Structure formats: C-alpha cells, structure tokens
Automatic annotation (TrEMBL):
Record key words, sorted: ANK repeat, Cytoplasm, Repeat, SH3 domain
Gene3D superfamilies registered for this protein in UniProt: Ankyrin repeat-containing domain, SH3 Domains
ANK repeat ranges, renumbered to this chain: 111-133, 145-177
Gene Ontology cellular component terms for the protein in this record: cytoplasm
Record protein name field: Osteoclast-stimulating factor 1
Location in the cell: Cytoplasm
Length: 217
C-alpha cells in the first residue's frame, strides 16, 4: 500500500467559521487510498475541513475526499471571493456551485461589498434572485462607499434589480458616504420615481407608528 506523502510546508491558518477556502488545481492529483480525492488540472476544490493539519477534506464536483495539505499550498491557486466573482460576471453555474458548497453570501471583498452588490451592479437578475433565496442573505449591507446593493442597482439604472430588492425589503432611505439616497443616483426617471415612491411609503409607515422588529422591545 502506498505511503501518504507528508507536508513539506506548514499549512495556512484554519479559515474562520462560515468561510470556505476555494482553490483551483494547477496539476492533476491521483488518489492513493480509497478515502482520498482524485481531481484534474483546473478543477475547483472547496476545502471544507482543515482540522487535520496534514490531510484536509475537500469537495470537487459531487465527490468528497482527503487531499494532502501541502498539495494545496504548492500546487493550487487560491480564488479570493469566488461568490463575488460569480455574481460580478453573471456566472450562474459557478454561483450555484459556490452556494451549494456554503460559500458565505454575506462575505465582504476588499471594497466591503457582498456578492449582492455585484449582482445588483451588473443587473444579473438570476444571480440576484439566487443570492436572495439564501435564508441569511443581508440586503442593506453598506460597502466602503456607503452604498447598499440598492444604491448599486440604482446607479446602473437596473430597474428590475431595484424592484426585486425593494420587494424583499431593501431600505430606500439609506444614505451613502456622499449623503446620497439610491433615488438620487438613478439617472433613469422611472427608476428614480420607483425609488422615491418606495422611500415615501416607508417613511409614511414610520409616521403611522410602524417600526422595525430590531427597534421594538
């Protein structure tokens, strides 16, 4: 029986809970034992358990198995913010694969944006719906510019994305770092009117005594 190779370099830190490390294989790896994972060059690997410092559990497609941690360090390329990339490009297959492998829908990229920002920015409606379908998806996250996904959709005049976000409760009265409401970023008159109406209706509900659950005792 073949001996498993030992890592020659120390493994990286274990990701924080809720995060999934995603890498792309640069070379083929052939499983040496029944519980190991075989994969080809270019395959995406989702690292789902790094408890054992020598052997990590990974998923590739529908297969799950062990891979040597030193292989990940030396023979793969890390994919930062894979769900953001999928949302940005409107790549539904990759997006659904990421969601299926529990990549966080609320993870922040370098701009402080969540994947929903990029789906809204690109007007990628199917991606937007898929992200919103995830139970814990947050809709009013502000990035480093203070923009929410609603700001992103409004700025790009994606009226369909604006309507979807409003329908799931996105707040049209949030101002960004430039003190702008989503309605003030929309260049399309119909989109701006839709946002102003939603903002007015929300304000009216507050005046009539309605409050968010988080503000009530």
């Amino acid at each position: 029986m073949a001996n498993r190779p030992k890592p020659t370099r120390p493994p990286p830190l274990v990701p924080k809970p809720g995060q999934v490390k995603v890498v792309q294989a640069m070379f083929r790896y052939e499983a040496q034992q029944a519980d190991e994972l075989t994969f080809d060059e270019g395959d995406l690997l989702y690292i789902i358990d790094m408890t054992n410092s020598d052997w990590w559990k990974a998923k590739c497609g529908k297969k799950v198995g062990l891979i040597p941690s030193n292989y990940v360090s030396e023979n793969t390329e890390s994919i930062d913010h894979p769900l953001h990339e999928a949302a940005k490009r409107g790549n539904m297959d990759f997006l659904m694969e990421c969601i299926g492998n529990r990549v966080s829908v609320n993870g922040l990229d370098k701009a402080g944006s969540i994947p929903l920002h990029w789906a809204a920015h690109g007007g990628h409606i199917e991606c937007l719906k898929a992200l919103l379908n995830v139970a814990n998806c947050q809709v009013d996250v502000k990035n480093k510019l203070g923009d929410t996904p609603l700001h992103s959709a409004a700025w790009k005049n994606h009226s369909a994305a604006v309507e979807i976000l409003l329908n799931v409760g996105a707040n049209p009265n949030i101002r960004n770092n430039d003190d702008k409401l989503p309605s003030e970023l929309a260049k399309d008159p119909e989109t701006a009117a839709l946002l102003r109406e939603a903002a007015g209706n929300r304000s009216l509900r507050y005046e009539e005594g309605y409050v968010d659950e988080e503000d009530s005792d």
